[in-house]
Amino acid sequence: MNSEIVFEKWQACGNDFILTEINSIDEVKICDRHYGIGADGVIYILPSEIADSKIRIINSDGTEAEMCGNGIRCVGRYLAKKLKKNSLTVETLAGIKSLIVSENKVRVEMGFAVIKWQREIKLAEKNYNAIHVDIGNPHCILFVNSVKAGEVEQNGKLIENMSNLFPNKTNVEFVTIESRNKVRVRVWERGCGRTLACGTGACSSAFAAYKQGLTDSNVEVELDGGTVQIEITDSGIIMTGPAEYVYSGVI
Q1: Mean pLDDT within 34-43
Q2: Cα gap 149→198, rounded to integer Å
Q3: Helix axes 69-83, 199-211, angle to 10 degrees
Q4: Are 22 and 2 in contact (CB under 8 A)?
């Protein structure tokens, strides 16, 4: 670990991240909420030859994510201040993403999602009709009428680790349809556990709901930590939501 780590703490709908421009730190230790700074993940902001910046996203368990919708909004506001520009491109493992920063909100062109399969997942206490969505990272969408206490934690963890269905594990979203223009999403996030929000999960949930004919193409997604707006268009999925600076420090 470097002798000095300069960082900023950001959050988007309660999904919190440590942003730093150094190359490597002990992510598990620094994300620990008792013995470290505390975060759902670390985002390394690095130089790019094809975009304004490149990011690496490391979950709190040390695994790397291809993309993070909430995290990239935090990066967008960070870069907008640093580079003094509101229109940005960011290189990720899921491709280059275009962002527009406006005050405390960030609009992100998330690209396209694909439904890989739809099938029943049978667990000891409950069966789910599951839709596997790929938006650059994997998601398992479960449409439910309600969620019991502990269901997200217990069943989300089981489904995340179903290696026969998800060789690289998966994020899991428990989705309730509230209207044609609003869905409620609870998240079990791969590599993090229960989180207050997941941007790619919000996009995947809205996409699956739209493709099933359950909602319109423009929906509000309510997460435990806040709301984002998702638009399904012919040119891809667009996500708009908040991102807020928390504090900065040196350790």
Answers
A1: 96
A2: 20
A3: 130
A4: yes
pLDDT for 108 equals: 98
Percentage of residues of the chain with pLDDT beyond 70: 99
CA contacts within 13 A on the Cβ side of 105? 10
Q: Calculate mean pLDDT across residues 97-119.
A: 97
> Which listed residue (31, 74, 192, 198) is catalytic?
198
Q: How many CB atoms lie within 10 A of CB 246?
A: 13
The residue from 68, 74, 140, 192 that is catalytic is 68
Residue 251 has pLDDT above 90, yes or no: no
Do the beta carbons of residue 52 and residue 111 sit within 8 Å? Answer: no
**Annotated catalytic, 140?**
no
Active-site annotation holds for 198: yes
With vertex at residue 184, the alpha carbon angle to CA 229 and CA 116, rounded to the nearest 5 degrees, is 80
